[in-house]
């Protein structure tokens, strides 16, 4: 019939081939290197490690002044090295010190 297309002429056939070891599709894309996944602490574990309450961490996370965190599938996790870095940034020399970190003392 006029205007109808034959399924055999309009369908492209693709042959399935298994991925080879050197196949570029089996490697991560450039800029997407695979790294070891850090061991994350729960909010309760992070709070215990810092000596604060879980609600303290929740409040700091909400206002953006707490340690860096991960959110995966709706769950919050803290990397131990991020907790350590945040704790170091909280160091002060006096109550009047409002800087992010204590100044170095030259002797």
Written overview of the protein:
The chain has 107 residues and is mainly α. The chain has a domain at 37-89: Multidrug-efflux Transporter Regulator, Chain: A, Domain 2. It is 30% helix and 6% strand. The chain is built from 4 helices and 2 strands; from the N terminus they run H-H-H-E-E-H. The protein has helices spanning 7-10, 43-50, 54-63, 80-89, and strands at residues 70-72, 75-77. It has a two-stranded antiparallel sheet with strand order 1-2. Helix 2 packs across helix 3. The longest helix is centred in the middle third of the chain and has 10 residues, at 54-63. The radius of gyration is 27 Å and the shape is globular. The N and C termini lie far apart (96 Å). Mean pLDDT is 76; it is low at 6-14.
């Amino acid at each position: 019939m006029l205007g109808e297309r034959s399924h055999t002429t309009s369908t492209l056939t693709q042959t399935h081939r298994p991925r080879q070891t050197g196949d570029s599709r089996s490697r991560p894309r450039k800029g997407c290197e695979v790294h070891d996944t850090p061991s994350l602490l729960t909010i309760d574990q992070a709070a215990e490690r810092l000596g604060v309450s879980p609600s303290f961490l929740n409040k700091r996370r909400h206002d953006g002044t707490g340690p860096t965190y991960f959110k995966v599938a709706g769950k919050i996790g803290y990397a131990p090295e991020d907790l350590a870095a945040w704790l170091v940034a909280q160091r002060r020399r006096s109550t009047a010190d409002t800087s992010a970190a204590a100044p170095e003392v030259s002797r």
